[in-house]
Design brief:
- Two copies of one chain form a homodimer.
- Chain A has about 350 residues and is of the alpha+beta class.
- Chain A is built from ten helices and 13 strands.
- The interface between A and B is large, with 101 and 101 residues.
Chain lengths: ~350, ~350
């Protein structure tokens, strides 16, 4: 072998330099963050007994459409979505790790925009970004977000443990994000057939915001602690109320009865769905992207739950063989159905 | 609204049923696993002070090529690669979470094969699979693996802290996986130009195995504990020796001198690289996919390190302004170069 022929790759602004540069977006603030971006792995020293963890993968043209999703909002939303699964265990999010796979369709400005959105959501949720990796994708933008959180062992809540007669609660309102998506898809089609037509979203701000830039419901986790309410079960509602309640019922071996009239929905959502000729209850049951929380509480917590804003009691737990139903406005019992394969 | 028109999706074998079915591959064995697959997020109760975490994304036709990578081996390898970053912190891996994004090109048998590979590696490494999610991809197979591990605070090792005159050690041997990749790529081209020609890999088993089914070097982490050696810095070697040593030097603000003759390589790798007309030292410095460990130790640990098999001392740490060099067989000093952007 010819020793003097040790040819190596030309030095250049490398991946690790770029990551180090981008890491400046993410100074660490949480005491539990020991090692952040820049080493082999992130290291945390949790304050609580339990570490809660989840990973979500977001793929362009499967989970998001960059024709109408600004990268800034996308960065915000991927953090909300990942965090939502930790909140669904009654945990407090503390760190996230980010893998961004980009093709040559994207420049550094695009990456910066995405990361600014990530930063904004992490700031709001007091979460440190402790991992950042970049990869080359063939064409589509692909983002993987891992969220880490903490929970006192005694406050952790799974989907298992709901008992007959307990109350089924949800935070916020439903179907707004789904309705926002329908509007965006409609205007995309209009634009594609006639690029001169400008999209008209007058008065639809809330619907678009719920779709494009949903907020993590950390306030609910904090309020439950403040009011000293420990839900018996809990889950993040990402695929509609029906899927969420059926997951709780399945894991807890119980049935349920929901009341159509109790499903929370804003006037704006209701009116827009009517315009779109969509039954609003179906949208609330099966529409996705709400990232609200569903939980069950003992009847003895009924007075305390009233102290928390933005909580609706939408039904109650029944015995298992009663099945899962929703009672319509004219007192018809309709069986809830599980959703099929959804990404 | 017409109450009786609450039409819902037809019940079918859903995503969550499939995940529940596939979860049977992964019974949890570690005491620290509190909640595994099937709830909003995984929950662990670490035994040690520090939780170490990393996420890797693997994309078809970027990180792997299914024309010659069997799904069984792919499943094994993605776990090895994710775990390797935890080992690079001197941590013990305990849990992994998996996100698999598949298109309709893949059937359930393919998913099963992939997960069997995941299971095999997790079994070998005594790691629990605590998260499993499936998504629809447009075409390519995309896999995200998050690995979680634990480390006593006092045994955690970062890339920072190497001091002048310390010894630079690596586990195993190098360039075998890179050479295996070259062989696979060469035979793929032969096959594409003439599908009647069968690939000839006689005597290349080790090279192919290092590329297709690398082993996590958990044995090294265990041996370091057994011999009571605490490295001063440590990193996983995934992109060649040069990138790894320069990352340690950069983080530690030191320089280094490596010796070409000390770089460990098997005869099989050496001979095959010669046949392929590639300078073997370049392959060891810049070839990827080794997933071996590099670490620095105090000179006082020199006697103890000899008790661990498969460790080579390849150089030593110098002061920062000396830079990073490799000394060739005929005593020429060649400067090491950083690699450019690599996925």
């Amino acid at each position: 072998m010819e020793e003097n022929t040790i040819k190596q790759e030309t030095p250049q602004f490398g991946k690790y330099d770029l990551i180090a540069e981008l890491a400046k977006y993410f100074p660490n603030a949480n005491a539990s963050t020991v090692v952040g971006i820049g080493d082999d792995a992130a290291v945390i020293a949790p304050n609580e007994e339990h570490v809660v963890s989840t990973t979500k993968v977001f793929m362009e043209n499967v989970h998001f459409d960059l024709t109408y999703v600004p990268l800034l909002h996308l960065g915000y939303k991927v953090v909300t979505v990942a965090i939502a699964d930790l909140l669904g265990m009654n945990a407090v999010p503390t760190q996230v790790m980010l893998n961004v796979c980009i093709s040559n369709r994207f420049d550094l400005k695009a990456v910066n925009e995405l990361l600014e959105g990530v930063q904004a959501c992490c700031d709001n949720a007091h979460v440190d970004v402790v991992g950042l990796d970049l990869s080359t994708s063939r064409k589509d933008l692909i983002i993987s977000v891992t969220a880490l959180g903490e929970c006192e062992a005694a406050r952790m809540v799974t989907r298992e443990g709901a008992k007959e007669n307990e109350l089924i609660c949800v935070s916020g309102d439903f179907a707004a994000a789904y309705t926002g998506l329908l509007l965006l898809e409609r205007e995309k089609k209009v634009f594609e057939s006639n690029p001169d037509v400008q999209p008209d979203f007058t008065g639809k701000d809330y619907l678009l915001r719920r779709q494009l830039r949903p907020e993590p419901r950390l306030d609910i986790i904090e309020a439950l602690r403040r009011e000293d309410i420990l839900p018996t079960t809990m889950t993040n509602v990402s695929d509609g109320i029906a899927a969420a309640v059926m997951q709780i019922c399945k894991a807890s071996h119980v049935g349920c009865e929901l009341f159509e009239e109790k499903l929370p929905m804003t006037e704006e959502t209701f009116v827009t769905l009517k315009d779109l000729d969509i039954v609003h209850t179906v949208a609330a049951l099966n529409g996705g992207d709400d990232y609200e929380l569903m939980f069950t509480i003992k009847q003895s917590d009924f007075e305390k739950i009233k102290n928390i804003e933005n909580i609706s009691i939408i039904g109650y737990i029944k015995e298992e063989h009663a099945g899962c139903h929703i009672v319509t406005g004219d007192n018809v019992h309709v069986e809830l159905h599980a959703q099929g394969f959804k990404s």
